[in-house]
Design a protein that fits this description.
Layout: E1 3-9, E2 22-28, E3 36-45, H1 49-52, E4 61-62, E5 67-74, E6 84-87, E7 94-98, E8 111-112, H2 130-143, E9 150-153, H3 159-170, E10 174-179, H4 182-190, E11 195-198, H5 204-211, E12 216-221, H6 225-232, E13 235-243, H7 247-250, H8 262-267, E14 271-274, H9 284-297, E15 304-308, H10 313-321, E16 328-332
Parallel strand pairs: 9-10, 9-12, 10-11, 12-13, 13-14, 15-16
Antiparallel strand pairs: 1-2, 1-4, 3-5, 3-7, 3-16, 5-6, 6-8
Helix pairs in contact: 2-3, 2-9
């Protein structure tokens, strides 16, 4: 009998999640049934959508999220002992996965760890996983940047934003990123952003005008709020906007208040589209092929903010929401 631990959400979040909003539950896993595997979890993801989707679930609920794990016992020949699996089984140290469960959307189906070609397995829940799918397809298929165009990214030092900016550079664009500290600004420029701006200290409209005197062609929005309203006001005719998130309002709804420049959207005929990874998850092999090649060649430099220990998953989550991470926040168990 295997004892497992998992994080259970017992309260709806008010502001930033609090430790008392969670309970760590220890329980015995049942024997495997046909089509199931026992997994020892090795890597766990913490992401903004876990905060955003809190009230879409009935409490109490098991904290959802992506993970990479090692198969220790199997009743599915497709996943032999010693193989690894990527799943959306949440914050736990052991779990049983029904490998044939197709009841959820494509993005949440378990799948074999792809050939990492020597790269860290953690990238399967980062640049080669859901954040990578979001960045790659959200930029290339919604914003559709052309070489020579100007792309602006908010939340540019996060898991998705840092990938978006680098992919845009690979495609020949001028890239401007907004981040929340001078250290993050420095890092973004080190990985190839043409200009990075600290939105906490800069006059956003003036700084963007100076950085992009000919206007903005594509905007990849991770934050919402007044920052995004300022960017939208400077987008060129026919500009494209990929709306990925609104993290500025997840813990403080008042931060989303602002006068969205709808007249600019109208007269400039802007294309604004919300994006979600599950739309393209069945095409992740395209992302994996391109991004693996770019990483191995040095064109793409995914950064990970690694926290160690099952007991520290909550701290990693809240730290990510407060912007403490550079790149993808992951937890190593």
């Amino acid at each position: 009998m295997v004892k497992a631990r998992k994080y259970v959400v017992k309260n709806y979040f008010e502001g930033y999640p609090k430790r008392e909003d969670y309970e760590v539950v220890e329980y015995d896993l049942p024997p495997l049934k046909n089509g199931e595997v026992l997994v020892k979890v090795e890597w766990v993801s913490v992401d903004p959508y876990m905060r955003a989707y809190n009230r879409r679930n009935t409490i109490p609920y098991d904290q959802f999220g992506f993970q990479v794990g090692l198969v220790e016992e199997s009743k599915d020949p497709r996943y032999p002992v010693g193989s690894r699996i990527v799943s959306h089984s949440g914050w736990c140290d052991y779990c049983i996965i029904n490998t044939s469960d197709n009841s959820k959307v494509e993005a949440w189906h378990p799948y074999k760890l792809p050939n990492m070609k020597g790269l860290s397995n953690s990238l399967a829940i980062g640049a080669l996983g859901m954040p990578g799918v979001t960045a790659y397809f959200g930029l290339l298929e919604v914003s559709k940047p052309k070489a020579g165009e100007t792309v602006v990214v908010s939340g540019a030092a996060g898991a998705v934003g840092s990938l978006v900016g680098q992919i845009a550079k690979i495609k020949g664009c001028k890239v401007i990123g907004f981040a929340g500290s001078d250290d993050k600004v420095k890092w973004l420029e080190e990985i190839g952003f043409d200009k990075a701006i600290n939105y906490k200290t800069a006059d956003i409209a003036a700084a963007l005008k100076e950085a992009a005197p000919n206007g903005v062609d594509c905007y990849f929005d991770n934050v919402g709020g007044e920052l995004s309203n300022s960017v939208i006001s400077q987008i060129n005719y026919g500009g494209r906007i990929s709306v990925c998130g609104s993290i500025s309002a997840y813990n403080d709804p008042s931060a989303a208040v602002g006068n969205i420049p709808l007249f600019a959207v109208l007269v400039k005929q802007l294309n604004i589209q919300g994006i979600h990874a599950d739309r393209w998850f069945d095409r992740r092999d395209e992302l994996i092929a391109d991004c693996t090649e770019w990483i191995l060649s040095g064109k793409l430099k995914p950064r990970e903010h690694i926290t160690e220990g099952f007991e520290n998953i909550f701290d990693a989550f809240v730290g990510m929401l407060k912007g403490e991470n550079y790149g993808k926040a992951v937890v190593k168990l």
